[in-house]
Amino acid sequence: MTRLGWIRFGIVGGAIVLLELMCRFGVIGRRVLIPPSDMAVQLWNLLRSGRINNDLSETLLNVAASIALAVAVGFAVGSVIHALPRVRRAIEPFLASYYALPFFAFYPVFIVLFGIGRMPIIVIGFLFGVVAMVIATFNGFDRIPRALVRTARAYRMGPVETALKIKLPYAAPFLFTGVKLAVAYSFIGVIAAEFILASSGLGYSIAYAFNNFDNRTMYALMLLVIVLVTVVNALLHVGEARLMRRRGL
Amino acid sequence: MRRLVDTLLVIAVLVAAWQVLHWVAGDALTSPAGTARRAWALMNGDTFWGHVRETGTAFGYSLGLAVIGGLAVGLTLGLNRTASSVAEPILVSVYSLPKVTLYPIILLVFGLGLSAKVAFGTIHGIVPVIIFSMNAVRKLPPIYLRAARSMRLSRLDMIRRVVVPAALPEIVSGLRIGFSLTLLGVLIGEMFASQRGLGFLIMNAIGQFDVDTMVAVILILAVVAVCANAALLALNRRLHQGAT
Questions:
Q1: Which of A129, B32, B42, B138 could form a disulfide with A70 if both were Cys (CB 3.0 to 4.6 A apart)?
Q2: What is the DSSP string of chain A?
Q3: Distance CA A187, CA A202 (A)
Q4: Does residue B230 fall inside a structural domain?
C-alpha cells in the first residue's frame, strides 16, 4: 500500500476505534449508537441465521437491474442527444436540476403503470442512475478528436456503427465514470425507495427495525449497506483509475 | 432568442409526454392541465404556505450550513496536497452512500423536528460542495499560490484574494449540485418522519391516494428547482467565459 493509503487507513481505522471507545465509555448513549464491534457481531449473526437472505438478494437484484437499464438507456440517449447540439443546450438546465426532485413520490404512479412488485423500485433506481450516465456520455463524446469522427466518415460508417466502433472505445474511461456514478445512484435510489415506500428489501428492513426500536438489527443492517456500497465503489474506483492511467489521463 | 424558443420547445415536449402518460396511466397521473389547476388552488389555500415556510426554513439553514461548511473544509483541504489526496476517496465513498439509511441515527441524535431535517439536508449537500471546491483549488496553476506566498499573504487573505476568485467557476458548479441534493435531502427527511413541510404533504397525499395534490406539489418543486438551477447555470457560464 502507498503512504497515502496508509494515512487513509489510519484515519478511517482511528475514527472507528474512537467511536468504539466513545460508545464503550458512555460518551454516546447506547440508545443512540451501539459500538461498532457489536454491530459487526450482530451482522455476522444475522447473516448466519439467514433471516435477511431474501431481502438482501432482492435488493441486489433490483440494484443490478436498475444499473443495467440506466447504463444502456443512458448511453443510447446520451449519444443521440450529443449528436443534436441544439437539443442538448436546451435540456441542460433541466438535467442539472434533475437530482433535486424526489422521484419516490411517483411510486404510486409506477405501481399503476408497472404493477405491484419489484418493477416500480427498479424504475426509481433507474431514474436515479440514468441521468448521470447521460451526462458522462456527453462528457466523453465531447473529448473525441475530430480526426476520428472524420475517419469514420471516410469509411462511410453509419451513425450507429460510428457510435459503437469509434466513440464507445475512445470515450470508455469517461463512460466508466458514468457507470460508477450510475451504480452509486442506483444503490441510493433503490435503497431509499425501499426505505420509504416498499414492504421488502434491505432499505425496508432498516426502516422496519427502526420503527420497532430494534436498534441492534438496525445498526447491523446499516453496517451491511455501508460495507457493501463502499466495497463496490472502491472496486470501481480502482478500475477507473487504471483505465484513466492507461489512457494517460 | 433562439435559446428561449428551444427551452420552450423542450417544455412543450415534456408536457406532451406527460399528457400521453396520463392517457396511459389514467387516474394514477393527473393531466398537466388538472395539475396546474390543483397547484393554483393549493397556492391560494390557507395551509400550503405554512408547509412551504417549514420546508423553506429547513432548506435555508441546510443550504447555509452546507455551503459555509463545505467551502471552509474544501478550500482548506485543497490547499494541502497530501490532505486532499487522502480525503478524496473517503469523500467520494461518503458521497455515494445511500444516506437515507443513516436517517434513523439522525433522528435518534436530534429528535423529531427541524434540527433533524436540517442535519439530514446538510449531510446531503455538504459533500459535493467539499469535493468540488477541493478539486477546484487543487487544479489552480501553482504559480498563483507561489505568487501569493511570495507576497506574504496570510492564509485568510490568500483564500479571499487568490483562491476563491480563481476557483470560482468550479465552486459555483459544486454549489449547484449542493443546492439540488440539499433540497432532496430535506424533502426525503420530511417524507419519512415529519408532520409539516412539502415532503410531508406529498407523503400524506400518497397515503390518501390524492394524486392531484401529490403531482401538483412535485410540479411546484420542479419549477422552483429548474429556475434556481437555470440561474446558477447562467452564472456559471458567465464565470467560465470570464475565466478563459
A1: A129
A2: --HHHHHHHHHHHHHHHHHHHHHHTTSS-TTT---HHHHHHHHHHHHHHTTTHHHHHHHHHHHHHHHHHHHHHHHHHHHHHHT-HHHHHHHHHHHHTGGGS-GGGGHHHHHHHH-SSSHHHHHHHHHHHHHHHHHHHHHHHHTS-HHHHHHHHHTT--HHHHIIIIIHHHTHHHHHHHHHHHHHHHHHHHHHHHHHT-SSSHHHHHHHHHHTT-HHHHHHHHHHHHHHHHHHHHHHHHHHHHHHHHTT-
A3: 11
A4: yes
Measured between beta carbons, the chain A residues lying within 8 angstroms of B233 are 92-93, 96
Q: How many domains does chain B have?
A: 1
- Residues 113-172, chain A: which have Cβ within 8 Å of B? 113
Task: Work out the burial of residue A133: count CB atoms within 10 Å of its CB; fewer than 13 is exposed, 13-18 middle, 19 or more buried.
Answer: buried
Contacts of A187 in chain B (CB under 8 A): 96, 98
Does the structure's ipTM exceed the value 0.85? no
* Closest by CA position to B129, among listed B57, B93, B88, B178: B178
Give me the domain span that covers residue B78.
50-243
Mean pLDDT, chain A, integer? 86
CATH of the domain at B153: 1.10.3720.10
- How far is it, in rounded angstroms, from Cα B217 to Cα B191? 13
CA distance A160 to chain B (A): 25
Q: Is the pLDDT of residue B65 over 60?
A: yes
- Whether A222 has its CB under 8 Å from any CB of chain B: the answer is yes
> Looking at residues A86-109, what average pLDDT do you find?
79
Set of chain A residues whose Cβ sits within 8 Å of the Cβ of B28: 108-109, 111-113
Q: State which residue of chain A sits closest to B110, comparing Cα positions.
A: A32
Please state, rounded to an integer, the average pLDDT across all residues of chain B.
86
Task: Decide if A8 and B89 are in contact by the 8 Å CB cutoff.
Answer: yes
- In this complex, do A225 and B100 lie within 8 Å of one another by their Cβ atoms? no
A101 neighbourhood in chain B, CB within 8 Å: 184, 218, 221-222, 225
Nearest to A97 among B24, B192, B229 (CB): B229
Which CATH number describes the domain made up of A35-246? 1.10.3720.10
For chain A, percent of residues with pLDDT exceeding 90: 16
Confidence check: pLDDT of B244 > 70: no
| CA–CA min distance B43, chain A (Å) | 19
User: Residue A208, Cβ neighbours under 10 Å: how many?
Assistant: 17
Q: With contacts defined as CB-CB under 8 Å, which chain B residues touch A13?
A: none
Domain spans, chain A: 1-33, 35-246
Within-domain flag for B132: yes
Is B122 contained in some domain? yes
Q: Are B177 and B117 in contact (CB under 8 A)?
A: no
